[in-house]
Specification:
This protein is α+β, with helices and mostly antiparallel strands. The protein has one domain. The chain is 31% helix and 12% strand. It contains seven helices and ten strands. The strands form four sheets. A four-stranded antiparallel beta sheet has the order 3-6-9-10. Strands 1-2 form a two-stranded antiparallel sheet. A two-stranded antiparallel sheet has the order 4-5. It is globular and about 85 Å long. It starts with 15 loop residues before the first helix and ends in a 12-residue tail after the last helix. Residues 222-231 have low confidence and may be disordered.
């Protein structure tokens, strides 16, 4: 029997049409994948930011428990009755309560000698992780623009209307007076309820829409103006406070107002230690009501 050796057929190459079809399929798959990846990144950043605010909120709670239910001041001694205490802002005072005792000791040594020492305000090489939000795209811009180390910057602002002293026109959300002096008692001075009052909120590190301003966690208070500095939301008072959403560029936000890099959301720490996500549909009235601890007004249904 004669055996015949079969020769394998050579594999045909892809035609141009087939290659284009494969490329088109890959492009479609990448197009579908990228938004999903971005959503995952946004969710992870939001979760990290939420945890940061949670830790800051616990710092407020622990500090007040340590000092007879008194919260730290916007700027001043702590407790408020201390005669020989250094003068500092809220974010400095809570350092020992957010696992930054060594840094607090270093800052304290400087501020006791000079209450307006700028060493840590514009020269901190220590980055406090919970003071910076991963969604804050303005931090790098601030570092490049002002040549301050990245450790100086913060992505959160305290509510000066809680940590300072205010006067509210009865029956309204109009704040007519604000002082940086503290002494706020958790039970006595927040009758609207801790779960209904914003203590701390997202605030971009650098805003350049209009007047340029940065959020520096160790900023000091200027006695000439009723504000604690750029670390607190006191440039404008209620009822004129408003949240700024989707801040991906420092040119998009106004300093002195809360601002967030999260998509369609801004996060805040409430007085009870919880963290709340506010969406872009929140009304100005509801937002300002939540920023005032003692206006006696009911929060809107959009809270």
């Amino acid at each position: 029997m004669n055996s015949r050796r079969l020769r394998p057929h050579a594999r045909a190459a892809f035609t141009l049409v087939e290659l284009l079809v494969v490329i088109a399929i890959i492009a479609v798959l990448v197009g579908l994948l990228l938004p999903a990846v971005q959503k995952v990144r946004d969710a992870a950043a939001r979760s990290q930011c939420q945890n940061n605010l949670k830790q800051i909120g616990l710092g407020f709670t622990t500090a007040s428990s340590t000092y007879g239910n008194e919260l730290p001041p916007c700027w001043g001694p702590y407790p408020s009755t201390s005669a020989n205490s250094m003068l500092a802002n809220t974010m400095i005072w809570i350092l020992p309560f957010v696992e930054q005792q060594n840094l607090f000791t270093m800052v304290q040594a400087k501020l006791i000698v000079n209450p307006k020492d700028t060493t840590y305000r514009v020269g901190s090489n220590t980055t406090i992780k919970i003071y910076q939000c991963p969604s804050d795209a303005t931090i790098r811009v601030g570092v490049a623009r002002d040549n301050y180390p990245i450790g100086c910057w913060a992505s959160y602002g305290v509510n000066g209307q809680v940590f300072g002293t205010i006067s509210v026109t009865p029956g309204t959300t109009n704040v007519s007076y604000l002082s940086s002096k503290g002494g706020t008692q958790i039970q006595r001075d927040i009758p609207d309820g801790l779960s209904n009052t914003i203590f701390c909120i997202d605030k971009s590190a650098l805003c350049q829409k209009g007047t340029t301003g940065g959020t520096l966690w160790a900023d000091w208070y200027n006695d000439a103006i009723p504000a604690v500095g750029t670390a607190a939301l006191q440039g404008v008072l209620s009822p004129n406070l408003y949240p700024q959403f989707n801040i991906t560029n420092s040119q998009l936000c106004t300093t002195g107002q809360p601002s967030s890099g999260h998509t369609g959301a801004i996060q805040c720490a409430l007085g009870d230690g919880s963290v709340r996500i506010l969406n872009s549909g929140i009304s100005p009235g509801t937002f300002n009501c939540a920023m005032i601890p003692n206006d006696g007004q009911a929060l809107g249904s959009d809270w």
